């Protein structure tokens, strides 16, 4: 018969659930996929598409460029190409028009470059690859921003019911 | 020593069809063994409330994990059947989105719960417009079973007395409509388009796993074996009757065979058809019970145009939409080709509509601060509609075994060949035009509209493949879901449908399975099986 557990120890049948944190909550992610000028363009694009306000973070504050760098690294080749070429085109167009990379231009200067985002929505999306990139990036940047902890916490302060919580199904063996 | 097996009937599948078969048979004294290909979830332990930002992919999900399951999110990715373990094929020009759940309870763990009866416009479709085939049963045959299924699933709704949508035994939904819904209903009425309350199963969980299987277990006559992946049904070469099934342990892949006097297949439309197609023998080289050449054919589903219109209710902008103005939902029953023949297409379609919520950001031609301001302005002011249309059952739409593709258990996979035709495209176009007109007449701003159908399969309403019929030369099953060619084989799921209308099919699957199972029990009691 095994020896009885010491009195001060919790019973073995009553495990305690320990509170843990995710890597994203305690550390910065390290971008590895995009080239530096592509990454800089993506960060600037995020700032323009989802800007911060006094009561709300934007794409930069929610680490969207870093997250999308990771997501695109994991994505299929077609999606990767769409983004890489799209970000290169942002830099190319900014240099043509303003002699600066996209990261260096203002939101007002970016308006003509982002004109496709003001076109009416269609189910199949635009045919032009650059316009397709812009619509994809707008959706990704939006979703990545509003899913971030900083956004959800700020939204919960503005209105009730903005918890962003849902049931997660654990993996079966 | 106790006998290893003492069951009378082997049931394959545990969703709406298999679960109802177990419920009905065990109640009538029949001992059943149920094989379920997936695990048994523990809804307390297997689900955990979490935030998207605490998931590895921030809610986006692992890219490429579910190329065909648009419904899957990172939250519920582990609920859906893994596409790599469960492959299938199609011609690249005919994409098919096969959406599966392999778990005890099947797709009833996650169904939309809409519970509409079929009518004689479906059961006698050929009599009405000359296309296709009639079912071997009529509404009068199935109505007593619908009457019993609706209370079991606590279906709420409103009876309207319409021929195309038979009344049910419903929990009366007398809730008042919000004024946006009232406006919309008035616009529909002016055009002669019928609207009603949603009709859906209520309760925290409306699944085979909590409404059917516990009662069957309580009889002491049901044994459930999860993680049992059926490869084929076996046949006695002398009698031509089925005598059991081969299956593999999902985790170890160890082979097993279990004998049985009767087999009831309720593994889902495509899985049941696949099991029969894989059950080949000298007598049935093309698949068990497939002598007519119809097995795997007449595959269809219901086409969806998701968000056919996305609108804003102008008075609700800027946070002005209170409960009196916004909220609530409804349904438009089929209104085309009832008394008057449409020149552009056969049959008809239905809509779901809903008031409230915020229109999706992607349909707004904005970015940056103007987008965020517009979304804030539109919060709670949305109104949207989705089309659900009848797909004509056609012989050429089919599934067959692809010997070159095998699943994780070495079982040959399905090849699917299913396309939509001009009839469905004309219906989808008509549905967009009517939806837009209804919304404009209601004073709503139409923000976006389209008529693009989702790919075949994506509605998760796949039907046919083992269709019923009076003529064994043109059908697989008789009017009681029994194989024409193998008298101790029953197929009780959506594969038995002859046509599907635009009504969500689960309620009809439940009623068919109940009716077939009670017929089977009576045959066994009389010693006919």
What is the global morphology of chain A?
A: elongated
- Spans of chain A of at least 5 consecutive residues whose pLDDT stays below 50 are none
Could you give the count of β-strands of chain B?
A: 21
Unreliable spans of chain B are none
How would you classify the helix and strand content of chain B by structural class?
A: alpha/beta
The whole-angstrom Rg of chain B is 23 Å
Q: Percent of residues of chain B in helical segments?
A: 10-25%
Shape of chain B: globular
Q: Mind explaining what this structure looks like?
A:
- Chain A is mainly alpha-helical.
- Chain A is 48% helix and 3% strand.
- The mean pLDDT of chain A is 91.
- Chain B starts with 8 loop residues before the first strand and ends with a helix.
- In chain B, strand 1, helix 1 and strand 2 form a beta-alpha-beta unit.
- A six-stranded antiparallel beta sheet of chain B has the order 7-15-16-17-14-20, with helices on one face. In chain B, strands 9-2-1-13-21 form a five-stranded parallel beta sheet.
- At the A-B interface, helix 3, helix 6 and strand 1 of A face strand 3 and helix 9 of B.
- Strand 1 of chain A pairs antiparallel with strand 3 of chain B.
Summarize the structure.
The complex is a heterodimer of chains A (173) and B (529). Chain A is mainly alpha-helical and 173 residues long.
List keywords for this structure.
heterodimer; A: mainly alpha; 7 helices; B: alpha/beta; 6-stranded antiparallel sheet; 5-stranded parallel sheet; 11 helices; 21 strands; 22% helix
Topology:
The complex is a heterodimer of chains A (173) and B (529).
Chain A: H1 23-26, H2 36-49, H3 64-74, H4 77-98, H5 107-110, H6 129-146, H7 149-158, E1 165-169
Helix pairs in contact in A: 2-3, 2-4, 3-6, 4-6
Chain B: E1 9-12, H1 16-27, E2 32-35, E3 47-51, E4 89-90, H2 120-123, H3 125-129, H4 139-152, E5 155-157, E6 171-172, H5 179-190, E7 195-196, E8 200-201, H6 208-211, H7 213-218, E9 222-225, E10 228-235, E11 242-249, E12 255-259, E13 262-265, H8 269-278, E14 302-312, E15 329-332, E16 349-355, H9 368-378, E17 382-390, E18 398-406, E19 412-417, H10 422-441, E20 445-449, E21 489-491, H11 506-525
Parallel strand pairs in B: 1-2, 1-13, 2-9, 4-19, 5-6, 13-21
Antiparallel strand pairs in B: 5-8, 7-15, 10-11, 11-12, 14-17, 14-20, 15-16, 16-17, 18-19
């Amino acid at each position: 018969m095994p020896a009885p557990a010491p009195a001060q120890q919790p019973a073995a049948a009553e495990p305690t659930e320990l509170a843990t944190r995710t890597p994203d909550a305690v550390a910065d992610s390290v971008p590895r996929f995009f080239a530096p000028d592509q990454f800089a363009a993506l960060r600037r694009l995020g700032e323009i598409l989802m800007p911060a306000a006094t009561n709300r973070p934007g794409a930069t504050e929610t680490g969207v460029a870093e997250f999308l760098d990771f997501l695109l690294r994991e994505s299929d080749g077609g999606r990767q190409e769409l983004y890489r070429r799209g970000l290169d085109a942002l830099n190319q167009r900014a240099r043509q028009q303003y002699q600066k990379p996209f990261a260096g231009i203002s939101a007002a200067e970016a308006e003509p470059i982002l004109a496709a985002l003001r076109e009416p929505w269609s189910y199949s999306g635009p045919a032009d690859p650059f316009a397709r990139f812009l619509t994809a990036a707008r959706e990704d940047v939006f979703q990545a921003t509003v899913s971030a902890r900083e956004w959800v916490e700020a939204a919960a302060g503005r209105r009730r019911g903005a918890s962003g919580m849902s049931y997660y199904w654990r993996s079966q063996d | 020593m106790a006998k290893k097996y003492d069951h009378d009937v082997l049931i394959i599948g545990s969703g709406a069809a298999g679960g109802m078969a177990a419920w009905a048979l065990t109640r009538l004294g029949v001992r059943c063994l149920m094989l379920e290909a997936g695990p048994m979830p523990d809804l307390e332990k297997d689900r955990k409330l979490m935030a998207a930002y605490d998931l590895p992919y921030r809610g986006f999900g692992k890219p490429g994990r579910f190329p065909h399951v648009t419904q899957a999110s990172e939250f519920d990715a582990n609920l859906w059947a893994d596409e790599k373990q469960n492959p299938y094929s199609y011609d690249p020009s005919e994409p098919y989105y096969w959406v599966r759940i392999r778990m005890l309870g099947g797709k009833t763990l996650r169904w939309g719960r809409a519970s509409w009866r079929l009518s004689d416009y479906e059961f006698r479709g050929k009599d009405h417009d000359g296309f296709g085939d009639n079912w071997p049963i009529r509404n009068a045959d199935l109505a007593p079973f619908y009457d019993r299924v609706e209370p079991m699933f606590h279906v709420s709704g409103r009876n309207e007395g319409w021929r195309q949508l038979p009344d049910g035994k419903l929990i009366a939904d007398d809730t008042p409509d919000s004024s946006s819904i009232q406006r919309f209903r008035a616009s529909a009425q002016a055009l002669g388009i019928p609207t009603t309350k949603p009709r859906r199963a209520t309760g925290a969980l409306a699944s085979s796993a909590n409404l059917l299987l516990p009662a069957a277990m309580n009889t002491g006559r049901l044994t459930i074996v999860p993680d049992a992946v059926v490869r084929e049904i076996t046949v006695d070469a002398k009698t031509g009757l089925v005598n059991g099934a081969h299956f593999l342990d999902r985790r170890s892949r160890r082979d097993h065979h279990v004998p049985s006097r009767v087999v009831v297949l309720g593994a889902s439309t495509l899985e049941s058809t696949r099991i029969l197609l894989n059950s080949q023998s000298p007598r049935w080289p093309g698949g068990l019970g497939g002598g007519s050449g119809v097995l795997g054919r007449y595959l269809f589903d219901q086409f969806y145009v998701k968000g056919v219109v996305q609108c804003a209710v102008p008075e609700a902008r800027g946070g002005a939409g209170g409960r009196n103005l916004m909220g609530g939902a409804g349904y438009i029953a089929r209104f085309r080709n009832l008394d008057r023949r449409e020149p552009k297409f056969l049959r008809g379609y239905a809509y779901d509509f809903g008031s409230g919520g915020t229109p999706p950001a992607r349909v707004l031609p904005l970015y940056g601060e103007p987008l965020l301001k517009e979304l804030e302005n539109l919060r709670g002011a949305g109104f949207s509609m989705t089309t659900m249309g009848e797909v004509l059952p056609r012989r050429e739409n089919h599934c067959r075994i692809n010997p070159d593709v095998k699943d994780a258990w070495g079982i040959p996979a399905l090849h699917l060949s299913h396309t939509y035709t001009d009839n469905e495209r004309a219906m989808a176009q008509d549905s967009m035009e009517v939806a837009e007109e209804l919304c404009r007449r209601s004073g709503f701003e139409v923000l976006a509209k389209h008529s693009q159908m989702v790919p075949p399969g994506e509605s998760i309403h796949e039907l046919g493949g083992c269709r019923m019929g009076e003529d064994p030369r043109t059908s697989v099953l008789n009017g009681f879901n029994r194989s024409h060619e193998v008298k101790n084989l029953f197929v009780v799921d959506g594969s038995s449908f002859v046509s599907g209308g635009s009504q969500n099919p689960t309620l009809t699957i439940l009623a068919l399975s109940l009716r077939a199972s009670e017929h089977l029990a009576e045959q066994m009691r009389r010693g006919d099986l």
